[in-house]
Automatic annotation (TrEMBL):
<dbReference type="InterPro" id="IPR053714">
    <property type="entry name" value="Iso_Racemase_Enz_sf"/>
</dbReference>
<dbReference type="GO" id="GO:0016853">
    <property type="term" value="F:isomerase activity"/>
</dbReference>
<dbReference type="InterPro" id="IPR026286">
    <property type="entry name" value="MaiA/AMDase"/>
</dbReference>
<dbReference type="Pfam" id="PF17645">
    <property type="entry name" value="Amdase"/>
</dbReference>
<keyword id="KW-0413">Isomerase</keyword>
<protein>
    <submittedName>
        <fullName>Maleate isomerase</fullName>
    </submittedName>
</protein>
Length: 244
């Protein structure tokens, strides 16, 4: 177990670690928006340039070394910050990745897909609209993963962009515009840590009055929760509450 009790700046109460896809240009900004001023974020990058089956399947192979290096920073928790990469092989794959992280680092760990399920369950959301930048085959994996956890996807929306650099270029207003009517859903989930879903979530909360969970908000919440810095219920106002 990493020693987090020494060599700590007294102005920082916690240090959080995140394993980030190398092509992701969104999450580090979202970490700054979501984390309290007394919490620092530290990232290690995992090689991936495109959402293809081959690259997503190989992403977890980089986990042990990346997690080991993050542990050098004496972080309080580590989250594998990729939604599709942490659910690619279906039910239980997120737990396998978590075990790899902890085995390599000795640090409490989780994944974005695990965090999303925990967030949706904490809000009692059983029927959600899924908003993603993914191609249909990847949407289907997310739908199946959520379904295996008892969460029904009532509709899917969003562009089909296999290049995460294109994903990052979609403005929050464009993401939010993909949902015109949530219908019978009791909430909305915006997937992908390379998508500006955190900002789009605020727009959709105000527009429809429904709970909204984005991948990056769930990821930040999970890192804070593992470190004992956040409650077990996902905040209804998302990152605005997390950053307090």
């Amino acid at each position: 177990m990493a020693d987090t009790s020494t060599h700590r700046d007294p102005e920082w109460t916690h240090r959080l670690g995140f394993l980030v896809p190398s092509v992701n240009t969104v999450i580090e900004r979202d970490l700054r928006l979501s984390l309290p001023a007394t919490v620092s974020a530290h990232v290690a990058r995992m090689s991936i340039t495109r959402d293809t089956p081959e690259q997503l399947a190989a992403l977890a192979d980089t986990v042990p070394e990346a997690a080991r290096m993050l542990s050098h920073a004496a972080v309080d928790s580590i989250v594998f910050a990729c939604t599709s990469g942490s659910l690619y092989h279906g039910l239980g794959y997120d737990a396998e990745i978590t075990e790899r992280i902890t085995a390599a680092s000795g640090v409490p760990a989780s994944t974005t897909s695990s965090a999303v399920v925990a967030a949706l369950r904490s809000l009692d959301l059983a029927r959600v609209v899924l908003v993603t930048p993914y191609e249909p085959w990847l949407d289907e994996l997310v739908v199946a993963f959520l379904g295996a956890h008892g969460i029904e996807v009532t509709a899917t929306a969003g562009p089909a962009l296999p290049d995460p650099l294109d994903t990052a270029s979609v403005p929050p207003e464009g993401i939010a515009a993909a949902v015109t009517d949530p219908g019978a859903a009791d909430g909305i989930f915006i997937s992908c840590t390379a998508f500006r879903g955190l900002e789009a979530a605020r727009i959709l909360r105000e527009r429809f009055g429904l709970p909204v969970v984005s991948s990056n908000e769930a990821t930040c919440w999970e890192g804070l929760r593992l470190a004992g810095r956040a409650p077990d219920t996902f905040p209804l106002k998302g990152y605005a509450e997390l950053a307090r």
